[in-house]
Amino acid sequence: MDIMTQYFLIFILAATPWVELLLVIPAGLAMGLNPFPVAFVAFAGNAIPVFLIVYGYKHWESWRKTRVRNRTTSMTRRKQRALNIWNKYGLPGMALSGPLITGIHLATIIALAFKPPRKNLLLWMNFSLLIWTVGMTIVSFYGIEGIRSGIEHFS
What we know:
Blueprint: H1 3-15, H2 20-30, H3 35-67, H4 77-101, H5 104-113, H6 118-154
């Protein structure tokens, strides 16, 4: 498999909900790819769907209102948990915990339900992605190098 195909797969998998950068970055680095392009491609793969979700949400919401009428919405445990996180930590807490707890895409959808300003939502979600991308790249790089070093030392 050529290198461009590998980076393309990293991009597609990073854009896939629940796969995202927490799995893609370590996998890309384990394949021996350069950490900087892996981080950049994984970030882009996560960030682009966030923009699409945020800007497509109004259209989906208006479409949904025409399709679903007189439906009562109950407070499920998941909704209650999201509401508790939102009330306690707000948008920053939802954004920063999102990649680990639900994935950034679902965290964006949950945050949209609370109707924050789009600019703030995009800022916090992308800031969170940046922090998680840098952190995961550093931890994965040095973790994989440590494992390789240990294997070479003992063999």
